[in-house]
Amino acid sequence: MSRILETINSPADVKKLSVAELTMLAAEIRERLIQSVAKTGGHIGPNLGVVELTIAMHYVFDTPTDSFVFDVSHQAYVHKLLTGREKTFHTIRQPEGLNGFMLRTESEHDSYGAGHAGTALSAALGMAVARDMSGGSEHIVALAGDAAFTNGISFEALNNIAAQTKRMIIILNDNEWSIDKNVGAIAEYFHKIATNSTYVTLHDKAAGLVERFGGKAALHVAKRAEEAAKGLVGRGMIFEEFGISYFGPIDGHNLQLLIETFQFLKQQNKPVVLHAITQKGRGFQPAIEGQKKFHGLGPYDPETGETKVPGQKTYSEIFAETLTKLANGNDKVVAITAAMPNGTALDLFRPHHPKRYFDVGIAEEHAVLFAAGMATKGYRPFCAIYSTFLQRSFDQIVHDVALQNLPVVFCMDRGGLSGDDGPTHHGLFDISYLRGVPGLIHMDPMDEDELADMMYTAMLHDGPSAIRYPRGTGPASVVKDQPVALEIGKAEVLQDGSDVAVFALGAMMGEGRRLVGLLEAQGLSVALVNPRFAKPVDAECVALYGRRCGLLITLEDHVLDGGFGSALLERVNEQELAVPVVRVGWPDQFIEHGKQDDLRKKYGLTAEGAMSKAAGFVGKIVGERLAVQ
Ligand SMILES: Cc1ncc(C[n+]2csc(CCOP(=O)(O)OP(=O)(O)O)c2C)c(N)n1
Ligand SMILES: CC(=O)[C@@H](O)[C@H](O)COP(=O)(O)O
Ligand SMILES: [Mg+2]
């Protein structure tokens, strides 16, 4: 029962509450999050960790006049509950429902959208400078997790802040977790501060002090904690060195302390950072015990935290098992992830080859350069980075890997529609952004067994390669014990035909087979081709069917512009073929979040969609066939 929460229609309602009522509100929000996300799925762990932080932010600051910028913004559910979306919160990440991240078009309180990590500090600085230039007085508050500071862009911003603005507030939400435990020197640095004995004592005393002395004590605690932290790590506080005044660490669940501290920070005429120590998954024991699992997941049992055990291996698992096999036979094979060991399933590889597993943090550009360096020494790096996150590393792929023709393999999980995460996470652009890179081969398997073959082919290939594969499961093909090497640039003809040729790339093979059936039902002779390569496209195969057939149809889980269909069109044009080509893929727009099948139907990435798009050409061919009978 959410007695107070149901009265919150805007942050103004939060400001009316006493600290006691705010504490009750926090409890109600936790219960709502646990129960609601159990049904929808989502980032429950991160959001349970920022309940008090977000309440205190909305109590002290004043959106939309003040601007909040959340890094990744996967932890913005509490913010959404407090900014007029309590009644629709049950639709989060659901078709037509609330987005799982902040979205400028969703609310005036969402001053900046996100989904990818490391963007908050830079965007907040841009807002602060714009405010300064316009003579504004509003507050700009960036909330960034500890793992956001493993990202290079965050440090590009830190380097710039003190030189550019007089006022900006950074909240470092330190729960010591990324998706897995946070990694690297910065994580260790924050850990040292957070576990400093003086701070821990202070933290224990804080509750009592605040109770006895109210607000003033809060400042005392914050200052003493700051002294402790600075005492521990000297004046060389990393933030102080960047000209940003450091405060904390303080208990990120102590509402009174947070409110007092935010009110104090509001008065500061300098860039400040508050180091808040929080607990990911707080208030839900399964999420506390399973912080990695409950970072982000599908529906779960709100009592036990149990989730449905998937019946079939995902592409990610096949990837990890295959990589383990390749590494068993080749000690130069190494695996690199950018803070996504579970999403990429490299968690399954790590126990077999712990010394050949590298998690570099949320640092995709660095991951690619790190791989390039290893490749110059004869290693075979498999860089497992989601298609969407690899967008970050385009220059490193061109300038460092391809230009030097280094044998780095890019394993792009979530290649294609991602689903519930929406437009920030759909992997719909990697063919476009990679096929122009000289020397790089780009593969897209039609099933799990072919993924293994492509990984083996990539390992043997003396140059850069990229393999994209979708989120979730495939057609459950049997994976051979020993993968085979594919001929680079050679398509596979699954069925011959002479009227229409269907080129179904990767995960679209299922719809390709259905399309063949629909065309054959029209009395047509239909070829079915598994392209395998988006670069190089098999020009010979295109010419063979371009000369023989009256129509070529391409299907891809990728944007049309610059995708596989575009590449095939170029081969048609170069070979002066007259055959019409109908391309089926995502249109030139960002695709909303939703269920994969629903969205494919809505946007015509189905056999029926292809038939309707090709109806004119198909009708003409059918007519011609009838005329000669
Ligand atoms: C560029 C990029 N790489 C990877 C991810 C996947 N990702 C989402 S949240 C997250 C961990 C964030 O950790 P932190 O910033 O500490 O926030 P917390 O979840 O702990 O609140 C990662 C790696 C991403 N969103 N963007
Ligand atoms: C917030 C974030 O970027 C990750 O948690 C992402 O949502 C994971 O995506 P998958 O669920 O597809 O692994
Ligand atoms: Mg964290």
TrEMBL record:
Top EC class of this enzyme: transferase
Domain Transketolase-like pyrimidine-binding: 313-477
GO cellular-component term (any): cytosol
InterPro entries: Dxylulose-5-P_synthase (IPR005477), THDP-binding (IPR029061), Transketo_C/PFOR_II (IPR009014), Transketolase-like_Pyr-bd (IPR005475), Transketolase_BS (IPR020826), Transketolase_C (IPR033248), Transketolase_CS (IPR049557)
Family under the similarity heading: Belongs to the transketolase family. DXPS subfamily.
Catalytic activity line of the entry: D-glyceraldehyde 3-phosphate + pyruvate + H(+) = 1-deoxy-D-xylulose 5-phosphate + CO2
Species name: Granulicella tundricola (strain ATCC BAA-1859 / DSM 23138 / MP5ACTX9)
GO biological process: isopentenyl diphosphate biosynthetic process, methylerythritol 4-phosphate pathway; terpenoid biosynthetic process; thiamine biosynthetic process
Record's signal peptide: none
Keywords: Isoprene biosynthesis, Magnesium, Metal-binding, Thiamine biosynthesis, Thiamine pyrophosphate, Transferase
Pathway: Metabolic intermediate biosynthesis; 1-deoxy-D-xylulose 5-phosphate biosynthesis; 1-deoxy-D-xylulose 5-phosphate from D-glyceraldehyde 3-phosphate and pyruvate: step 1/1
Residues where Mg(2+) binds: D146, N175
Cofactor(s) it depends on: thiamine diphosphate; Mg(2+)
EC annotation from Swiss-Prot or TrEMBL: 2.2.1.7
Molecular function (Gene Ontology), one example: 1-deoxy-D-xylulose-5-phosphate synthase activity
Binding site for thiamine diphosphate: H74, G115, H116, A117, A147, A148, N175, F284, E364
Cofactor binding, per record: Binds 1 thiamine pyrophosphate per subunit.
TM helices/strands, residue ranges: none
A matching Pfam family: Transketolase_C
Name recorded for this polypeptide: 1-deoxy-D-xylulose-5-phosphate synthase
Function (record text): Catalyzes the acyloin condensation reaction between C atoms 2 and 3 of pyruvate and glyceraldehyde 3-phosphate to yield 1-deoxy-D-xylulose-5-phosphate (DXP).
Keyword Cell membrane carried by entry: no
Subunit structure: Homodimer.
